[in-house]
Amino acid sequence: MKLLVALGGNAIKQAHEAGTTAEQFENCEKTAEQLAGIVSEFGPDDWLAITHGNGPQSGNLSVQMEAAKDLVPVQTLDVIGAMTQGQIGYMLQNTMQKHLKARGVDIDVIAVINQVLVDPDDPEFSGDTASKPVGNFFTADEARALKAQHPEYVVKEVKPGAEKGWRRCVPSPIPSVNVEARAIQQILTDGIIVIASGGGGIPVMQDDKGDYQGLEAVIDKDRAGEVMAQAIGADTFMMLTDVEHALLNFGKPDAAPIGEVTVAKAQQLAAEGHFLPGSMGPKMASAIKFVQEGGARAIISSLDKAVEALEGKTGTIILP
Ligand code: ADP
Ligand code: MG
Predict the structure, then answer these.
(1) Is the separation of the CB atoms in 44 and 108 below 8 Å?
(2) 174 in a domain, yes or no?
(3) Fewer CB within 10 Å, N side or C side of the chain?
(4) Cα 117 to ligand 1 centroid, rounded to whole Å
(5) In this predicted structure, what is the pLDDT of residue 40?
(6) Can you give the pLDDT at residue 274?
(7) Measuring CA to CA, how many Å separate 39 from each of 36, 42, 54, 246?
């Protein structure tokens, strides 16, 4: 099996936690234990690549920077992306090493800093369309002050009616190319576990000379995961989140789990609007794209069911 696992936010920080280093390591331990179990069954040609979200970590980092902005300059979002790739990559690498060793599995693990190409003409960059909320929540007054200080920011009311209902929103463009894919594939072929495309990758564009330039944007980690899965030749793309299945009629009394479906059926369900934008929507869209473009199967399930989902016993499984 050539497996890419995309880890959701809950693999590193639970929603109710503050996000201390100890808490995040504890979550990574549980994640690493699951993944090490999968790797311990691998044959000589099998490999594992890992990607992960960074929403809570980049949010916290932005809050820290904003609070200290009179002492130290705020960094751009591409740099914040790189910082959190390092932060989370370290924690996953460290805990994976520990759990592989505990199982007597002698496989190396490495996290890489990874850029992902987007189109600077993506509609998300124009006007007020930017759709991804980041950082703190603000009151209407605070939102106006932020906008006055940073006229280039898109600041939107994301929770209408709430006292602090405003947030900065940044573009979430569609990813096209994983810039370091060839190097990642080479490392995987050497039998090493690679952690890459963290937080959806560092968003970059190519300038007139073909050089990469960072952008103020955030890429959806499942969409970027799909781009990487294809580029590195994964046969299985598994997105692990906080639900065991994608549901039909999500949020309604007749909600029902989706098991094994064909890509055609998944497309029909997506068109019917069962999967919300910003959460299950991009997961299902990425699953569909992966299988349509030649992947053997895409899986959506929860972290604690990863092994059973790979065995086909649970989870939402999208097949050609
Ligand atoms: P992650 O950090 O793993 O990407 P998300 O919050 O983005 O997690 O996505 C998982 C969430 O998607 C679920 O907790 C649920 O609230 C939401 N969701 C939206 N539509 C559906 C659906 N049809 N079935 C199940 N969950 C859904
Ligand atoms: Mg998500």
Answers:
(1) no
(2) no
(3) C
(4) 25
(5) 97
(6) 96
(7) 5, 5, 24, 25
pLDDT score at 134:
86
How would you classify the pairing of strands 47-52 and 193-195? parallel
The total of structural domains in the chain comes to 1
Query: Which CATH number does the domain housing residue 251 bear?
Result: 3.40.1160.10
Distance from residue 309's CA to the centre of ligand 2 (Å): 19
Pocket of ligand 1, beta carbon within 6 A:
8-9, 53, 241-243, 246-247, 250, 274-276, 279-280
The atom number, within ligand 1, closest to the CA of 278 reads: 7
> What is the reported pLDDT for 8?
92
**Residue 250 within a domain:** yes
Instruction: Let me know if 9 is a catalytic residue.
Output: yes
Q: How many CB atoms lie within 10 A of CB 285?
A: 20
Model pTM score: 0.96
Which residues does the chain have with pLDDT short of 50?
none
Of 45, 55, 176, the C-alpha closest to 63 is 55
Distance CA 246, CA 67 (A): 38
| From 13, 283, 289, 305, the catalytic residue | 283
pLDDT at residue 248, as a whole number: 97
- Which residue range is the domain that position 77 belongs to? 2-118+179-319
Are the CB atoms for 175 and 184 separated by under 8 Å? Answer: no
Ligand nearest to the CA of 239: 1
Q: Is 268 within the bounds of a domain?
A: yes
The tokens for 252 are 């309604």
Query: What local confidence, expressed as pLDDT, does residue 135 receive?
Result: 79
Please report the pLDDT score of residue 87 as a whole number: 98
Task: Decide: 77 and 125 in contact? Cβ < 8 Å.
Answer: no
Q: Measured between alpha carbons, how far is 272 from 267 in angstroms, rounded to an integer?
A: 9
Other beta carbons within 10 Å of 168? 23
Q: How far is the CA of 279 from the centre of ligand 2 (A)?
A: 4
Nearest alpha-carbon partner for 260 in 226, 222, 300, 206: 300
